[in-house]
Amino acid sequence: MSYQTALAIFLPLGLAIAAMGSAFGLGRAVSAAMEAMGRQPEAAAKIQLGMIIGCALIEALTIYALVTVFVLQGKIS
Amino acid sequence: MGVEFIHRVIRTSLVLAVLGFLFVTVYYNFKFGGGILAGAIWGCLNILFLTRLITEIFSPGTEIRKGKVILIAVVKFPLLYAAGFLLLKIAYFPPVSLVIGFSLLFLVMFLKAMGRWILSLDSKEKKNPAPTNQVGGHKTGGN
């Protein structure tokens, strides 16, 4: 298997795994935050802050994966 | 500490991005500096819309304004992401500079959180809580 073939196979696969991981992570984070807000509505602001930072970090990892794919995509052809 | 922390982080990141743009443009090149600025602006807009979306949907005890939620969702998901995709696809700015600009936000967030931890600001707030209505982080009483 050549270098280009390996990139062509594994780049989309890697991006898909990153997207799936981030989707699971976001789902878990939001559901845990909703539960926590339901239990302690008076702490909603702090829970929201944690949720926003967590969501932003999870999203950032997917964006890093996307940028890496874009950079490596140029090396396929 | 509530959602206003995010707003402070966004302001600081933008100031840092402008300074970085000027510095890199003068000492390296315009495209790299512009990429840092564009990445930082994109990241700030992304987190701003994320914050607005979360506070609009997940604030207990407040009515969800569907029109506003749809507007934020439309601007954030198709439009902002399409702009990011175009920034990468057109390749006017180097992708590394865009990533550096995008990461500035997280660097500022990390440093601000470290500062709060080192100065023990959270434990001081626990001892002397500010008179706030906790939902959504908006101050309703006091100063």
Give a summary of the structure in a few sentences.
The complex is a heterodimer of chains A (77) and B (143). Chain A contains two helices and no strands.
Describe, in plain words, how this protein is organized in 3D.
The complex is a heterodimer of chains A (77) and B (143). By secondary structure, chain A is mostly helical. Chain A has a single domain (3-73), classed as F1FO ATP Synthase, CATH 1.20.20. Chain A is 87% helix and 0% strand. Chain A is built from two helices and no strands. In chain A, α1 (3-39) packs antiparallel against α2. The longest helix of chain A is centred in the first third of the chain and has 37 residues, at 3-39. By secondary structure, chain B is an all-alpha fold. Chain B has one domain (3-121). Chain B has five helices and no strands. Chain B has helices at residues 4-27, 30-57, 66-90, 95-118, 121-127. In chain B, α1 packs across α4 (95-118) and α2 packs across α4. Chain B is flat and about 50 Å long. Chain A binds chain B through residues 33-34, 37-38, 41-46, 48-49, 51-53, 55-57, 59-60, 63-64, 66-67, 70-71, and chain B through 1-3, 5-6, 46-47, 50-51, 54-55, 58-61, 84, 88-89, 95-96, 98-99, 102-103, 105-106, 109, 132, 134-137.
Q: Uncertain spans of chain B, ≥5 residues at pLDDT below 50?
A: 136-143
| Helix-strand topology string of chain B | HHHHH
Please state the CA-atom Rg of chain B, rounded to the nearest Å: 18 Å
Main sheet characteristics of chain A:
none
Number of helices of chain A: 2
| CATH homologous superfamily identity of chain A | F1F0 ATP synthase subunit C
Question: Which shape of chain B, going by the Cα principal axes?
Answer: flat
